[in-house]
Amino acid sequence: KCNNFCCNLDNDTLGDWCMVKDETCEESDWGYCKPPSIGSSTCRDSPLGWVDAEGDRCGDYGIGKYCTADGSPGPGWDKSWGTFYDFTNQGYTADIACCECGGGIDALDQCKDKQSWKDKDGDPCSAYLEAGWCDITGSPGV
Fold first, then answer.
1. How much is the mean pLDDT over the chain?
2. 110 CB contacts (<8 Å, ≥6 apart)?
3. Whether pLDDT at 88 is above 80
4. What does the CA dihedral 48, 7, 102, 78 come to, rounded to 10 degrees?
5. From 139's CA, which of 36, 42, 76, 111 has a CA 20 to 30 Å away?
6. Hey, what long-range contacts does 105-114 have (CB within 8 A, 24 or more apart)?
7. Residue 71 has pLDDT above 70, yes or no
8. How far apart are CA 37 and CA 33, in angstroms?
9. What pLDDT was estimated at residue 72?
10. DSSP alpha helices (H): ranges in the chain?
């Protein structure tokens, strides 16, 4: 039985999945749900939007269980693939770039909010950080 939007009715070994809201955005009608234990709410992948040499994103590493939070290969990593170093892109490996893999940056260490600031909809700075609406430089997020 499914009690929320993320379910695993078919006992998928990669975890819970859900139907997506916008197929054109997601390139599929379903996707894996990000477990709440992956990453911290203030950790941001760095560089923002990083992908490995084959185009896998940080989220793919977490969802596929390719890595652990301490930066080691996870149960989803096939040893025949080699090491994270073999997938280096832009000078970064997943364990350095991705929060899911123990890397990334703590966004709270990178910037300071103007106390009591809110946008026209009443959203404070913390909402922008949590939703990824902007990066630490103030540029639009992903």
1. 76
2. 136
3. yes
4. -100
5. 36
6. 105/43, 105/44, 105/46, 105/136, 106/40, 106/42, 106/43, 106/44, 107/42, 107/43, 107/44, 107/136, 108/42, 110/136, 111/136
7. yes
8. 11
9. 93
10. 23-26, 58-63, 94-97, 125-131
